[in-house]
Amino acid sequence: MTDLSAQLARVAPRGVAWAGLREVREVTRAAMVRDGLPERAATRESHGVLCEVLVDGAFGYAATGARDDAGLRLAMERALSHARASAPLAVHRFDERARPPSRGVYRSPSVRSRALEGGVFDWLVGLSRRLKAGAEIGRTTAAVFAVDVTSRQVSTSGADVTQETFHLSTDLSATAVRGAVVQRRTDAGPLGRSHQLGAEALGDPAFEERAARVGEEALLLLDADECPTDTRTLLLAPDQMMLQIHESIGHPLELDRILGDERNYAGSSFVRLVDVGALQYGSPLLTVTFDPTLPAENASYGFDDVGAPATREVIIDRGRLVRLLGGVESQLRAGVAGVASQRASSWNRAAIDRMANLNLEPGASTARELVAGTRRGVYMEANRSWSIDDRRENFQFGCELGRLVVDGELGPIVRNPNYRGRALDFWRGLSGVGDRSTFEIFGTPTCGKGEPNQAIRVGHASPLCRFEGVSVFGGAS
Ligand SMILES: [Zn+2]
């Protein structure tokens, strides 16, 4: 990368309250094996700069892939004209406080191996063999995506932030077919696993074990009964808790949705500004944190994309809503506390309120205790389908695999397990939270929001959790 701060000094327009540059270079390497056959190896690079100016209390943006001075000057002129045009229509007049003058460096803790090494296809073919656990496995997929992101932000108020992160996503699936019965099993749901890890993590033998389990369980599901339809206790594995937290805590607590910005597209929220500090969101066992500090979690960082220093914050404290997921612009508009979560999916997008790492904190129960305390229940893992209204209140989720729980013991596997509920009723029914031995970290690169759309990386960690009085049902949904 060039010396961005020297470039800013040359290209910043005169007479503006503030100007900034955010350069992002992202290299994605992908390898996929389908049905045991190497199918795709691709490398994609995206590299450009977002130019931002603040004029008359309004921000203007323009992005460019032409990173020389001439390209940046042209983009700055466009940003300036956008800011001048939008200033008379602005809902809020911003000042420099919306762009903290932070200085610092953040690097993924694990960047030892920055590229997929040779042999990745052999590794994927080996996993595919494990996925094909029997003749009735009709299709297998094993894929890995390695993303290398370098970004730098500089501003006329003195910000200078460099961040380097390395993200590894894996996707393993096996589909079992017998006549009209089709059962697909994956490693952690259709979105797979995403972590901030180096490619050295691919040597972890846990991948082999999980591939074998995915294949074997796809076959077991062919013989399983349908999930019963009634109201009972529900135990959710961390790989389904990930989506439950994302959809029914993360999205409704995004401050820009509450302010109405996303009403036309991603939707609004059932949560109101006056609920902060007052709303009992869940049972006293529910504590949720915004935590950008866990080393391997997908959305750990030192600063968000407007330069706010990222710190761990409690969002729901023993059931009570205490803070929202809003970056500095939304905090200034709404007059409430938030988090460092104003983020952009790349150099060609403006930063908006996002989730980052949003985690449910571990409790005190072992997995055995959670099951032993359940008289009539069902355990579910790995998301298969989801549906939630645009205020993020009523939801319905399907999972890949269920197991009945009868009189404190795990019973037989059931297929096509689903459950539905209302966000607050559901979280208030939280009756047990697993301890650290049940706690797992997951993530996805594809949380979608914003116009134009921005697919962004998020992380969610959770222990095993137990909920009372949940409506469950069978059938493919
Ligand atoms: Zn999302």
Commentary on this structure:
The chain contains 9 helices and 24 strands. It is 19% helix and 40% strand. The mean pLDDT is 95. The termini are far apart. It has 2 domains: 220 residues, PmbA/TldD fold; 248 residues, no CATH class. A hairpin with a 2-residue loop joins β12 and β13. The structure holds zinc ion. The site of zinc ion has 3 residues, from loops.
Averaged pLDDT: 95
Structural class: alpha+beta
Strand content: 35-45%
Q: How many independent structural domains?
A: 2
Secondary structure tally, helices = 9
Tell me about the largest β-sheet.
Answer: 8 strands, mixed
pLDDT under 50 segments (min length 5)? Answer: none
Write the layout of secondary structure elements.
Blueprint (H helix, E strand, L loop, with lengths): L3 H8 L6 E17 L2 E19 L2 E7 L4 H18 L16 E5 L12 H12 L5 E19 L4 E19 L2 E6 L6 E3 L10 H18 L1 E2 L3 E7 L1 H13 L4 H5 L28 E3 L22 E5 L2 E2 L6 H7 L7 E2 L8 E2 L4 E3 L6 H6 L3 E13 L5 E13 L2 E7 L2 E5 H6 L1 E4 L6 E10 L4 E9 L2 E9 L4
Parallel strand pairs: 4-6, 9-19, 10-17
Antiparallel strand pairs: 1-2, 1-5, 2-3, 5-6, 6-7, 6-8, 10-24, 11-12, 11-16, 12-13, 14-15, 17-18, 18-19, 18-20, 20-24, 21-24, 22-23
Helix pairs in contact: 3-4
Bound molecules: zinc ion.
